[in-house]
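Quick one, T. Sequence first:
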Amino acid sequence: MVTGTFASPVDTTNVLLKVNQVFRPAHHFNARYSRYDVSSENSRGAGGLFAPSAATGLSNEDQGFAITNVLVLSDRSLFETRAQLSEGDLTAAPMDTIGPAVSIAGVASFGTSSTSPTARIGRGWQVVNNFTVVTGGHSLRAGADVLVNNDRITYPRSGRGSYTFSSLPNFLSGSYNNAGFAQTFGATEVSLDNPNVGVYVQDEWRVGHAVTVNAGLRYDLQFLETIVTDRDNVSPRIGVAWTPTARAGTVVRGSAGLFYDRIPLRALANALLSAGNTTDAAALRQFVVTLSPAQAGAPVFPAILQEAVPAVTLPNLTTMDRNVQNAHSLQVNAEVEQQLTADTTVSAGYQYLKGSQLLMAVNQNVPTCIAAGNNNGCRPNSSYANNSQYSSAGESTYHGLHVSLARRAATWGHYRVSYTLSKAMNNVGEFFFSAPIDPTDLSKDWGRSDNDQRHRLVLNGSIQAAGFQISGMMQAYSAPPFNITSGVTTIQATAGRPIANGAFIERNAGEGTAFFSLGARISRMVPLSDRLRLEVMVEGFNLTNRANVVTRNTNFGAGAYPANPSATFGQATAVGDPRAFQFGARVRF
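C-alpha cells:
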C-alpha cells in the first residue's frame, strides 16, 4: 500500500452575471453569463494504492452564455425560447512525464498516468423552443430541442509504456502478466461533431376531479461520424394520478415510459482516433501494442519500445459497432399515498427499471492461446491483435420498494423518514466502457450492480424552539458489493477473477462495508435593527466519526479461493471524511 502525504491544493474561481428585462407584462427576457475556473495538483488518481506519480493535475476553464425569452401570446398560450453557448477547456497533464506506468495487483500503481485523456476542448450550442396552450381540461405542450457539440480530445494512452504485474514477487523479478506490457504509437488528438435533434408533444388532462393523466411522446436523433443513425428512438410516456375520494386523503399514482440516452462522445473519439473506426491497417492513426513476456521482441522491465515491430507487435484496435443503438431504459412506477393528519402523510411504492443496449467494450478478435514466440495469441484474424468494439450489449435491472412517513413544515418543525429495499443487477460495470471477462459469454458478468445496496434508511428533519433551529440528517446504507480480482490476466487478455469449481467466481462477489453518517446544524437569528438581522450557525458532519470505506484492496491474489487470500485483500485504501465542524455567520438586510 502507498503511504505518506502529498499536496493537492485546489484553486477555484466562479463568476456569474445575470440580467432580467421585462419589455411588457407579456414579454420577459433574461440573459446569464457564467465562468468557472479550477486548478489542482494530484487531483486525479492519487491516493490509496495509487502513488502521486500515477495521478494527473487538473486545469479546467468552463464558460457559458444563456438566454431565455418568454412571450405570453394570450391568456391560454405562451411561447418560450431558451438558447445557450458553452465552452470548456480542460487539461490533465500526468504528474510523471517519463514513465513507464506500473501496476502491481493489490500492491501499488505508479508511473505515468495512461488511462484517461490529457486534454479536452468542448464547444456547443443549444436552442430549445416550447409552445404551451390550455384548452378545456387539457394543457398541451410541444417543443423542439437542437444541440450541437464539437469536441477535440487529446489521449496519448500508454505512449510511455505500461506494465502490469500480478504480484510483488513477480514485479521484483520483472515477470509481467500475459499481455502485461502495452505501448501506444501514433496520433494523440481527434476532433468530432455531434448534432442532436429532439421533438416532443405532451398533454396534461384533468379527467373530472379525481383523475389527472399526463401523456407524451418524444423522438430523438443523434448524428455521429461513421455510425448509422438510430432512427427508432421513440419514447412514449404516461402518468396517472387518481384520488378515489377527496375526504379519504388517498392518492394513487402510476407512470411508465421509455427513456433514451446519448452515445458518449469519448467512446466514438477513441474509435476514430484508432483507425477511423475501421480495422484497416492503412487507416491507422493511433494504435496500441501489447506483449507477453515470452513473445519475441518483448521488452525487459522497465524498458519501452523505440518503435513497433510489425511482425510481432500487431496493433490493438478500438472500434464502435456502426449499427450501435442508443441505450434506453423502461421505467415503471406505482405509489399509494395516504394522508394521516392535515400535515402528515405515509406512502409506499414500487419502481422497476430495465436498461437495454448499454454500451460495453467487447473484443471481436479474442486470443485462443497464450501469446509466445512469434504467435499473437492464435487469434481468428492474424493481421491485428485485439479489436475492442463498443457494442450495445449491456443489460441491467432494478427493483425497488420504498416507504416514507413525512410531516410537512409547521411552526415547530418538520420530519421525514424513508426506507428503500432494492436490488440492482447488470452485466457491465459503472466505470468507463467496462469489458466482460469472457467476450464470448457475457452471462459470466451478470451480477450485482456496482452501486447495488439492499437497504437504505434516511431520516431528516428540524425543530424550532426558543429562537433556535436544529436540523439534522441520518443516513444508513447496507454494504455495496465489490469485484474480486485475482491479479492474473486471462487468456482473453482481461482482468481475471479467482476460480472456484473450475469457473470464475461471479462478478461483484465481494461484500463491502455499510455506510452510516449523522449530521446536524444549529442556527439562531439575532435581530440587529428593523431591517438588519444576523444569523449564526454551526454545522457538524459525520458526528460519530465513522470510517466509511470508499475503496479497498479488491485483489484476492493467485491463491486458492476462498481459503488463501493475499495478506492485504479487503483492506481499506480510502475512507470518507472524518468528523468535521463548520461555523458561519450571515447578515440579512
